Amino acid sequence: MLPDTPPHQASAPDGVAALPTGPAADDALAALYAWPAPDTWPGRAGTPVVRANLIASMDGGATVDGRSAGLGNAADTRLFAILRDLADVILVGSGTVRAERYGGIRLDATRRARRVRWGLSADPPPIAVVSNRGLDPGLPLFTDTQTPPIVITTQAAAHTVPEGARTITAGHDRVILADAIGGLESAGFRHIHCEGGPGLLGNLVAADLLDECCLTIAPMLLGSGAQPMLPVAIDHPGRWDLVGARVDGQHLFTRYRRASS
Q1: Residue 58 and residue 220 in contact, taking contact as beta carbons nearer than 8 Å
Q2: CATH assignment of 47-225+238-258?
Q3: pLDDT-derived band of residue 41, with 50, 70 and 90 as boundaries?
Q4: Taking phi first (over 0 means left), then psi (-120 to 50 degrees means alpha), and beta for anything else, what does residue 89 get?
């Protein structure tokens, strides 16, 4: 069960609350970032909830030297793990799997215990990677994991999925994201947590499939040479509601939910 009492919090500038700290911080963060009910958005009752976790500079840059790690701080790393451990499945693009050398999630005893405490399985959530053209079986995603990964791919590339991985086909020669989300739902995954990269995230937004966005804003300006946070065109820009804002140091942690109207 999640705690009802607020934890100790560090001071924060301009009246914005700090992220929870102290011995009860993990449970407090889990309560702050509890998954919303799927009927929060009209017309979506009974559907999975798709949440993204991302970090960007003040001017929207997504990477430093090709990786997102250069933007974060210790609090961002901690929240990253909390959000993973609250999820049923982690959705990632193949480019990010290659660039960030993604492996499967490995849980120590503390993380297993807190998932059980939060009413979840002690087993780590699987990584589901979206790939149009296949993946190297030598990637850590396949060789360094406790839970077999899921490969969401096309009918044309399904034969390339490494042995031991679960396959979800979503489209003939290009992955259709709506079918990918439907495939995850059919497999029993209702809390879908997306970690990018920018291309996958942008395509989810363009397809109107993203419900919630946990955006960390790093105190940096990267300029036009940086990878943009959303490198896709969006035909019908949507409005989002701010449902939370916290700080740690100079990093701002925001949480947005798609507007209900």
Answers
A1: yes
A2: 3.40.430.10
A3: low
A4: beta
